[in-house]
Amino acid sequence: QVQLAESGGGVVQPGGSVRLSCAASTSILSFDDEGWYRQAPGLQRELVAQIFARGSTYVADSVKGRFTISRDNLANTITLQMDNLKPEDTAVYYCYTWDGYKLDWGPGTQVTVSS
Fold it and tell me: Residue 54 contacts by C-beta under 8 Å, 6 or more apart in sequence?
């Protein structure tokens, strides 16, 4: 079972930027896809961005043009660069991996966008 650990969350003002990183305990090349979900209070967890085995990416419409997902295959990290943040981006952000059989999650990191 892969262990995932997110880092980089915190409090940021509207219009600011945050970079989230997810470190995996195994090679991320073994997964079908990996990425980020988020969950705001009282809402369902939603997909933010994902990157597939061959390198293609998906970014949700709500963050398109502001968030970028990338990965470092040597360091086994998945990064979410978040720019021009809005108060509605406030949530706990979770890293995940999917190997075609099992979905694994990190513990999450809080991002709060507030003036």
Answer: none
Scanning the structure block, which residue is given the tokens 């990996």? 34
Q: Locate the DSSP E strands across 1-115.
A: 4-7, 10-12, 18-24, 33-39, 46-52, 57-59, 67-72, 77-82, 91-98, 103-105, 109-113
- Model confidence over 33-72: pLDDT tens digits? 999 999 999 999 999 999 999 999 999 999 999 999 999 9
Letter for the amino acid at 95?
C
Contact 82, 36 (CB under 8 A): no
Say which residues have a Cβ less than 8 Å from residue 42's Cβ, sequence separation at least 6. none
Length of the chain: 115
Say whether 29 sits in a helix, a strand or coil: helix
Alpha-carbon span 101 to 80, nearest angstrom: 24
Half-sphere exposure (CA, 13 Å, Cβ side) for 10? 11
Q: Do the beta carbons of residue 4 and residue 97 sit within 8 Å? A: yes
